[in-house]
Amino acid sequence: MPEKPGGTEISELAALKALAQPRRQQILQHLTLHGPATSAILARALGLNTGATSYHLRELARYGFVADTEPQEREQEQGPSVRRERWWRAVPGDRRFPPPSRRTPEQRLVMDELNRTAYAADLALFERLQRESAEAARNPAEADEWADAFAYSRGALSLTPPEVRAFFEEYIALMNRYRRPGAEPAPGARTVHTRLLAFPDPGPRTPASPARTDHTETDAS
């Protein structure tokens, strides 16, 4: 799945279905955050059996979302024989989905399910980590600088559809500025989850005299 400027659009229905499966989303997220793993490692981390993780990995690999790494060799405890383990890694890329106006009814159903599970997982993770951070902050002995690393912003802008698209591309470019592909993490660095939501207000639209709603509220805690 070659990368193109502006991202690679995934429109094949089978590929979308492969990605929308909740367990596969969990597997891909784990590989992205923690690096290569075997089906056994993933099974232990996600509470599955190795048969299930192996199947899901093959389906993700079929459409280029994961790939196997060089086989790792490990001696078995019962003798000198060597068992070859298959390690998997997430394939990075700027993947895009067809915009709603171009989705077929079948694509729309799959994307609705993919978005529903992804949004729910993101919100649950954010709420859990924020709650744990707040609890740790109450105990000075446990608090650290990461307790203040929950950047949160709410805002509103008066934009045209082309400006929304330009805004999104600038966000992706900003993300890429901070990536360190293939490099060792900076001292003290941790994985920081980032999400962007931008959506039009559902209120009445008056193109001739649009209301000025530009504002921003931020909270870094």
Structure at a glance:
This protein is α+β, with helices and mostly antiparallel strands. It has helices at residues 13-20, 22-34, 39-46, 50-62, 105-137, 161-177; strands at residues 8-9, 37-38, 66-68, 72-75, 82-85, 87-90, 95-96, 152-156, 215-219.
How is this structure best described in words?
The protein contains six helices and nine strands; from the N terminus they run βααβααβββββαβαβ. The chain has one domain: Winged helix-like DNA-binding domain superfamily/Winged helix DNA-binding domain (Arc Repressor Mutant, subunit A, Orthogonal Bundle), CATH 1.10.10. Strands 2-6-3 form a three-stranded antiparallel beta sheet. The protein has a two-stranded parallel ribbon with strand order 1-7. The protein is an alpha+beta fold and 221 residues long. A hairpin with a 6-residue loop joins strand 4 and strand 5. Helix 1 packs parallel to helix 5, helix 2 crosses helix 4 and helix 3 packs across helix 4.
Secondary-structure blueprint of this entry?
Layout (H helix, E strand, L loop, with lengths): L7 E2 L3 H8 L1 H13 L2 E2 H8 L3 H13 L3 E3 L3 E4 L6 E4 L1 E4 L4 E2 L8 H33 L14 E5 L4 H17 L37 E5 L2
Parallel strand pairs: 1-7
Antiparallel strand pairs: 2-6, 3-6, 4-5, 8-9
Helix pairs in contact: 1-5, 2-4, 3-4
